[in-house]
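tool_call: predict_structure(chain=1)
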Amino acid sequence: MSFVYKKDDFCIPVTKACSRSEVEFIVKDFINKKITFCLGGDEEETEIWRQAGDRDLDCIKKKGSPDNPVAVYVDGVKQEDYTIG
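tool_result:
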């Protein structure tokens, strides 16, 4: 069963749009920490959005996460097969 990506669940912006190489260290750190997150954009303008948790305050939640992410990681594992929900 594939993971269902729900845009509204990924509402914590981690980075502003910048090159993929500039955010690669964050991606590696999130993988090591087993965080659920997604990447939006392309090689030149990539954004990282983290899935909201129970302890996240509403004031840090934002709109604008990707409709169709480039990559989705669940507990640090890249999902090769996911659906948009």
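agent: The beta strands are 3-5, 12-13, 37-41, 46-50, 71-74, 77-78, 82-84. Proceeding to next step.
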